[in-house]
Amino acid sequence: AQHTVEKTSVTLLGLGAMGTALARTWLAAGHPLTVWNRTPSRAAALAAEGAKAADSAAAAVTANTLVLVCLLDDASVDEALDGADLAGKDLVNLTTSTPAQARARAEWARERGARYLDGGIMAVPPMIGVPEAGGYVFYSGSRELFEQHQETLGTPAGTTYVGQDAGFAALYDVALLSAMYGMFAGAAHAYALIRKEDIDPTSLAPLLADWLAAMAPSVHQTAGQLRSGDYTKGVTSPLAMQVAGTQTLLSTADQQGVSPELLSPYFALMRRRLAKGTGEEDLTGVIDLLVH
Ligand code: FVH
């Protein structure tokens, strides 16, 4: 006789772009799914695909032990869960929040008798359910909850548990997103430099992508220097040389009619660090200027 393993039943609150993508992966994997969305019409397509659409968030919470929330922001989580009975529930909050909001939400859930796991999604909706796209979710908070539900949580995307401190998933999430915006800013400046020239941006794109990929491993050297406290270890491009070079970048921006406003704040920090007599160091000392 064939033995079928029962899939964990899941409740999901929030059917925006991300919630809908998540929902489809659980349905496809055979998890019984109860959904709720503030605007009920967004649940119709999923109901046609096999989800149960609950009339209220409270009813959706009642339906299953494992309750996932993927709403716009922390205030919408408050609003949606107001009045829901969370006693005995396993609450997993995938809503983007700050570390402080995540820690407060963990305490809030504990007071209501629920185990709590916070999640930071490192993916956009088309990456959900597509393992080769490399998307994953940071989780932090209850280790027991994570371990018990790891298989279910891993259905939409990979899982990376980063500790019992409920704020850590949000912190890792925001750290990676912040680095991403630095990269976007640098790429924006690069495209601006060629904007008025007879250069096809699509010919610059692969060069940019390859250069950024070649530079990305430098984060490992930075981490090693931060850990050891020796910011001269392994230096190939000392701060003094780099500060001198920034003038070429600023002059080129000026000649191309491009505002230096994306680069200037970073260059100013490099100069401030150099003024402390650290010309033989890497760029790592800039980090210490940022931390109050
Ligand atoms: N989409 C993305 O690229 C990013 C990728 C990384 C992670 N984020 C975060 O995921 C959360 C949800 O994002 P989303 O893409 O699903 O967002 P929307 O499509 O805008 O849907 C928002 C849902 O939130 C509901 N909602 C808003 N306010 C309230 C409220 N006061 N009470 C109850 N529900 C509320 C909204 O409902 P409705 O407008 O359809 O009625 C949607 O279900 C988010 O934290 C991202 O930062 C996504």
Automatic annotation (TrEMBL):
Q: Where is the 6-phosphogluconate dehydrogenase NADP-binding domain?
A: 10-158
Keyword annotations of the record: Oxidoreductase
Which Pfam families did the record assign?
NAD_binding_2, RedAm-like_C
Ranges where the NADPH-dependent reductive aminase-like C-terminal domain occurs: 165-290
Q: Which residues form the signal peptide?
A: none
The record's family statement is: Belongs to the HIBADH-related family.
Which PANTHER family does this chain map to? CYTOKINE-LIKE NUCLEAR FACTOR N-PAC (PTHR43580:SF2), OXIDOREDUCTASE GLYR1-RELATED (PTHR43580)
This chain belongs to the protein called NAD(P)-binding domain-containing protein
| Record organism | Streptomyces mooreae
